[in-house]
Write a structure and sequence with these properties.
This protein has 172 residues and is α/β, with parallel strands linked by helices. Helix content is 51%, strand content 16%. It has a four-stranded parallel beta sheet. Strands 4-5 form a two-stranded antiparallel sheet. A hairpin with a 5-residue loop joins strand 4 and strand 5. Helix 5 packs across helix 6. The chain starts with a helix and ends with a helix. The relative contact order is 0.13.
Length: 172
């Protein structure tokens, strides 16, 4: 995450948006290794990309949880550092917990199980900050029976309802 890579990413987003004639959304990644020579934090880099290109944010809440486990940082702090006002869509998914060769926790963004409690908690925080936006639950393999999918959808809808009720209460 350097000034040079920032300029390159912004140029590519600008070209893509020009070619499509519309604003695109960029997703925060799930990461497993850190860069050795960054001059920006990841949230600051994403914020600058959004600011300079005018693109929006596809907020992947599970990716934040995965990266927070893998790099041992505060997921809520990372979330708050993102340009949440630019959020156009939120993704939720499951992840697998493993251990690396040194025995440290390692999270893998698998999309093959239910959304887990840490992701739901961070989603509650995210949806309060973004307001109502489209939400997609990613489940790419080991797809369960329909009732399980419906229940995951209900849980997301309930979180959005709680956020909307809290917003109304705050306004009086």
């Amino acid at each position: 995450y350097t000034a040079e890579s920032l300029a390159r990413v912004v140029d590519h987003i600008d070209a893509t948006q020009q070619a499509l004639g519309r604003r695109i959304l960029i997703e925060n990644p799930a990461t497993y290794l850190g860069f050795s020579a960054s001059t920006f934090s990841e949230p600051d880099f994403i914020t600058e990309v959004v600011r300079r290109s005018g693109c929006g944010l596809l907020l992947d809440v599970n990716n934040i949880i995965v990266s927070a486990i893998n790099h041992d940082f505060d997921a809520s702090g990372y979330l708050r550092a993102l340009p949440l006002a630019a959020t156009g869509e939120i993704h939720l998914s499951g992840h697998a917990l493993k251990a690396d060769r040194a025995g440290r926790p390692l999270a893998i963004d698998t999309h093959d199980g239910p959304v887990q409690e840490p992701t739901w908690r961070l989603f509650d925080e995210a949806i309060r900050a973004t307001g109502p936006v489209a939400v997609l639950i990613e489940w790419d393999s080991s797809v369960p029976a329909w009732p399980v999918l419906v229940e995951q959808s209900r849980m997301a809808r309930d979180a959005m309802t709680r956020a909307a009720q809290g917003e109304r209460l705050a306004r009086g």
